[in-house]
Write a structure and sequence with these properties.
Order of helices and strands: HHEHEHEHHH
Radius of gyration: 16 Å
Largest sheet: 3 strands, parallel
Strand order of the largest sheet: 1-2-3
Distance between the termini: 56 Å
Shape: globular
Amino acid sequence: MTIPKLLHYCWFGRKEVPILGWRNEEYITQSLSQNDVLVIPSRWEGLGLVCLEAMHLKKMVLASDAGALPEIVIDKETGITFKSESVEALSSALMQLTAMSTDSIHQMGEAGRKRFETYFNYNDMLKKLKQVYLEVSH
C-alpha cells in the first residue's frame, strides 16, 4: 500500500493530512495538545525529544525503531513501535492504531506519561548528567 493510499484509508477520506517540517517549541506543544497520537517514522533519531514531549502530554506514540526510540516507547504499553524504513511496518502500525478504541489510546498515553515521569523527567536527567560530569572530571 502506498503512503498516500494508507493516509487516505487511515484518516477516513480526509482530503489532506498535514505533514509538517521543522516547527518551533510553542507550535509543537500546541499541536501535540490537540492530538491523541504522535507518529514518528524516523529513519534516524537521536534521543527522540519530540517523543518525550508527547509522552509528557499523555499522547500515545507510534515510533520507528530508529535511535533511542525503542528505549523510550514500550511496544503495546506506551505506544507501537515498527521497523524504520519499512512502509509495510508503518502501514501495519497505523492499521493497529485504527483498530484501537479511544480508551486504549488514552491508556497508552497515560502509561507514557508515567514512563516519562519515572525515567525521563528533566530534573532527574539533569541530576544524573551532572553526576556523570562530576565523576569523569575527578
